[in-house]
Protein: NADPH-dependent F420 reductase
Organism: Nocardioides aestuarii
Amino acid sequence: MSDFPPGAIVSVLGGTGPQGRGLARRFAAAGIPVVIGSRSADRASDVATALAEEVGGTVSGADNATAAGQGDVVVVAVPWDGHADLLRDLNGQLAGKVVVDCVNPLGFDKQGAYALPVEEGSAAMQARAILSESTVVGAFHHVSAVLLEDPTVVEIDTDVLVLGDDREATDLVQALASSIPGVRGVYGGRLRNCHQVEALTANLISVNRRYRAHAGIRVTDL
């Protein structure tokens, strides 16, 4: 059972994309108030209205800046190529908040997915470098957007590795992950090791393409 604080609001930046929309769906279904953020406030509101009708709960939509300001915990689920610019623009709104980065810097070519080099070491480390007044946690890198969005999938069979340097913040995000039925939040180490977790997504994409699956990961013997 999740120990995520009752009434705490989760904002999802990039909440109209597959990953963000899927996470918002699962959080709302768990009874967590959700704000969907997007570059377009109208599009965010439309997605929020549809989600609220499907799963119930408190779901609203706003532009990314407004959503960032409203959330107690803010999930960043935007494309890698817009990651740094978005965080720079929202530095003020995100100050003092727990920011959960689930962005995977990946490239794609004829051979499939591969990890991109990041100057700061990882997307999460880039976020920490930009958001000096926020507490950055890495999580939700390996959860299939297809499964998150599928209303027929009741439980998602996966662990979520949670990485960060603040124990209270990583405990909070582990509880958020565990609010999704079937999912377990597992502490995965310091934020500096997030590059390994982000890069592993390329391997999972290869697994899923070969086996026509939506595989995640499980940590054994816990």
Summary: The radius of gyration is 16 Å.
